[in-house]
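The protein record passed on for reference:
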Amino acid sequence: MKIKSQKDFWSGLMFVIVGGSFAIGALNYSFGSSARPGPAYFPFGLGILLALLGGMILFEALTIETEDGEPVGAFAWKPLLVILAAVLLFGAMLPRLGMVISLPVLVLVSAYASDEHTWLGSIINSIVLTVLSWAVFVVGLKLTIPMWPAFLGG
């Protein structure tokens, strides 16, 4: 069988592998019930949906003809490394400096992954995400996430 779109083929394959891995990994946890879902409920369902989406993309890549075969371009190392560094920095900062400092740093550092980012857009994005994260995780879900740095009594 001939691959008619390389981009779709490799992205579909990635979705199938990641989704399948999450679904298989979720089998080690309790599913619970629909009324009281367990820890496996969401990752299993999401993994299956991701794998199905990947399967549809794979099918399209093998059946629908494209003009040039849509070759995969050069690997974008800068965005990958910048976003990875931002997430690692966030994970290290959150317990010590709280969400109010850590989340804006995550957004501002990861903005450098894009060639089109602006300071104003990144600052507005960080404020909105911080407020929404506080509302969802601290107020809504009542998670114990530090909001302020430990030295400020957070």
